[in-house]
Amino acid sequence: MSVTITPPRERECELCGRTERWDDDRDGWQIDGETGDVYCIHEWDINGSFTPIEPSKSS
What we know:
Elements: E1 3-5, E2 10-12, E3 19-23, E4 28-31, E5 53-55
Antiparallel strand pairs: 1-5, 2-3, 3-4
């Protein structure tokens, strides 16, 4: 059985509200809107309900 790992494409800090999106052209996260608190140790909302692993379907 193989699996596909799907990384998140956007994220939001649960502490300061900063939002970021993944930019394929720059190969990294880019701020999407307000910068939030630049001194915040960001707590990203990519845990809990986000599931990065998807089972591959066999044919």
